[in-house]
Amino acid sequence: MAEPPCSGQGSNGSPVAFGAVVSSEAILKAENAAVEMYRFAALMLGNEAEALSLVENSVATVEVDPCADPCAAKGLVRERVLDGALEIMHRQDPASFADLPAADSGSCLENDDTALSGTEITELVSGAGRGPLRDWLNRLSQAQRAVFVQRAVLGSSNADTARAINRFAKPSIWTAEAVSSLFRQALCTLASSLVRSAPATQV
User: Is the pTM of this model over 0.70?
Assistant: First the structure.
């Protein structure tokens, strides 16, 4: 099958949709991004079926130019899934986003410059720590969960996380400082939770 011309359009002049049969690096990047974002959405929403539906619906609306920068397709999928997850979380618990967290007066961390590595997250999500991690996430408010998963899984900065939350928060009061404080608190409580659950996860 011949590939469409490098114009971002199909033979009928319309944009090439993600689901179109097109052999290109852009399509492959978008597909890989969808797989990665499913894990992210499942951690954000706490529901694998809902996460799968979100990713499928988000990807179905993405139009990919097979001749454009392949990374642009990946970024678009990531943006759509992130916004979709945040919209759901704000709808489920708008009150948790309406107030900023209390000032962090006694964090166990000096700073939060480094998010958990991809390897550490993979081990927590798919390894022996999967159950304790998800149990811990389920005890968080929607705002706490949104901050932690964006920072730890996506590696988003404090400022980017605040901007993403503010796209849906009413009022839009989130700041990089508030995100930083909440993330440090979350890392401390996660560490304590994993330590307490360690004996139960050992075989």
Answer: yes
